[in-house]
Amino acid sequence: MEIILLFIPCLVGILVCGINATQKNRNLSQRIIVWTSLVGALYFLCDALESFPYTDAYTYVWARVCCGFCAPILPILLAFLLWSLHTHRQRYYRANLFFLLIPATMGFAMLVVYSMLGFEAAADYIESEYTIPFGASDMDKWLYGLFRFVAFDVYTFVVALSVCFLFAYIIYLAFVTDFTPSVVGNFLFHKGPIRPIHLLMVVIVLLVGISAFRLGVSPAYVRSHMITISAMFCVQGILFMAFGLLGLKLRLPCMYWNRSHNHEYFVDMPAEVYEAYVYRRELTEADDVEADSYRTLNLRDEFKELMREQQCYLMQGMNRYVVSRALEVKRSAVDRLVRLLYHITYEEYVMVQRVEYYRRYRKLHPNEPQATIAMECGFPNVKEMNQQLKECRIFFIHKKTEKRE
């Protein structure tokens, strides 16, 4: 029974990865969840092998080395995930991948020191809680000291640094997305919605907190408290499942425990963009020709249909991945298409649609709190919602609101 409980997070991680990998037109956030689930499943598998009392020395050491790769990388991937849900651009630069080099280097360093000391000697040294064997030579003492410095001190520092970076970013997001404990309370007691990013933040904090406790205890403690450790792994499996299920809901602007009314859908959206604002984006003659081309006009119709049916402008982030994959074009082509057709940037186009949706939603539900309306309309917070309302005053041709029955 304990064996099953130890490996539950690993099995759940593989299941989460498979479910999210099958989603069509995945956005950037869902792509990151797939990779995070793979790394997380590998980490939990290796952690379970470390905790299992009958793991042989060779497997135990390799499990420690794999944890050296996975444990520092996981917080960075989780931070990237939250960033992809908050950023206006929702695109990553390949230079950002260099952030993963530091934790990856940690894994290689652990592999080197384990090889220098020897796998069996390293396993015995860890089992004895870093006690140097009696009669060891000065050279052996130096190797043991180097091993402990890299495999324990440096490893703990790098993991702690990654976790601190993640927690600092979560605190920042809590401020800029109007996240407070009352938001969770209102959601649980059916009083209001919550953003998917907020639920992800709660799950991540709990998941990382339990894992930090597991890393902080000695192997001897783990083996003498197997029931407690097994229960901890079981809770991690439940949290990992919640993490994966949220990955399927990332396109929603907000979530309700029990919604008081149906999600509003307007058949005449996306809204028109005011033509007098064309001068902001001057186009060349070649651009004008391309804007009137057969392919561009077809993409325009497909783009409008996609925005109308899936309401991509309400999703967290800009969701270029969803749009580009649905249109079967590159992400940069989406930016160019919007500039050719509407003479504004893709970010401005999404802002226009969110503001127009706000105007219509507010007429239908005038008594709802500002925070709820901001969530429903896809804005990151109330302050930015009010700011964008001012910026978009001259973007519209207002038409009679028509709601789909």
Question: Keywords for this structure?
Answer:
mainly alpha; elongated; 405 residues
Number of helices: 17
Distance between the termini: 53 Å
Strand content: under 5%
Low-confidence stretches: 397-405
Task: Calculate the mean pLDDT score and round it.
Answer: 78
Report the C-alpha radius of gyration, rounded: 26 Å
H-E order? HHHHHHHHHHHHHHHHH
Biggest sheet record: none
Class based on secondary structure composition and strand pairing: mainly alpha
Note the overall shape: elongated
Overall strand count = 0
Helix share, percent: 55-70%
Describe this structure in words.
Helix 2 packs antiparallel against helix 10, helix 3 runs parallel beside helix 6 and helix 8 runs antiparallel to helix 10. The protein has about 400 residues and is an all-alpha fold.
